[in-house]
Predict the structure.
Amino acid sequence: MTLTRFLKGIATGLTALVLTATAAGAQTRIKDIVDFEGVRENMLIGYGLVVGLNGTGDSLNSAIFTRESLVGMLERLGVNSRDSSLSTDNVAAVMVTATLPPFSTQGTRIDVSISAIGDAEDLLGGTLLVTPLVGADGEVYAVAQGPVATGAFSAQGQAASISRGVPTGGRIANGAIVEREIDFKLNMMETVRIALRNPDFTTSRRIAQAINAFVGGPIAQSVDSGTVRMLVPDAYRNNAVALITDIEQLRVTPDNIAKVVIDEQTGVIVMGENVRINTVAIAQGNLTIRITETPQVSQPQPFSETGETVEVPRTQIEIDDESDNRLTVLPTTVTLQELVDGLNALGVGPRDMISILQAIKASGALQAELEVL
């Protein structure tokens, strides 16, 4: 083998490596763009009391629910306080929220979030008492209790105050224990449905094709733009977990519709790479009138016996009609980069660019979906 042929071989190998890396970089694992049926979280909520606050709790005179909850809790503990006058400000009523992960077993600990619902000022140093957490079906799935960590503080004096974060909200790490499991046997399923996080017909069909190519048979079918139905083959019978593990590592190239997303509050514009615009002429300009008042003082000469000091108004008016701006023509099917370059050539800022994009969409020249947040 000559040196020339050896170098050509290296160059060919490097080219193939670059092309392979480029193609792989454009693909995404199936697990990153889909959700599998039954593998989901569940929201939990509960109502409880936080005690041990340093005078920053609810006012029992205004927060009646806090007073009634405190009285009811004391009665369950054998303390009769209904006929007495309660004036403590060390207790706060809170809402407790948590997320139950999929396949959580009894005894598993999960994090909970605490939020005051009364007029409490700070939950720092408080302790949440035993609080049942229920699901949408009204069943208790976890019980929470523990010291509240707010990560915030507030201090004030007679003339100034300072605060950091939100002192009326907190969190308890591993603060709840799962008491009830959700009965779902994934391994016994004969059919698994795959839900796309961004529904698209092309992506759904590509996922089904990738699964069929991996298994070697037509077990997957694209039902619609957001769902792929997959039969569990005999090789994975009673072992759907192994099938999902193998399937979610497959790579496909997701396809998305052309979309322009606009946030008018912040002036943020996000455009996809498939955005196209038909031939259109764009001109942008605003009339600006600036009026400046610079009054001057006129006074008589020194030692003069006549005249008086007066204020003479001086007004300067400037009109800017941005006549330097020109009409720009964007050719047909311009790309995203060409669109941005064309608008930047006009000196258009983000706010004006939003109005221009909306006008282009109204004219029918924008071949993309326009979404305003």
Remarks:
- The longest strand covers residues 42-51.
- The radius of gyration is 34 Å.
- Residues 187 and 241 are 6 Å apart (CA to CA).
- DSSP finds six helices and 25 strands in the chain.
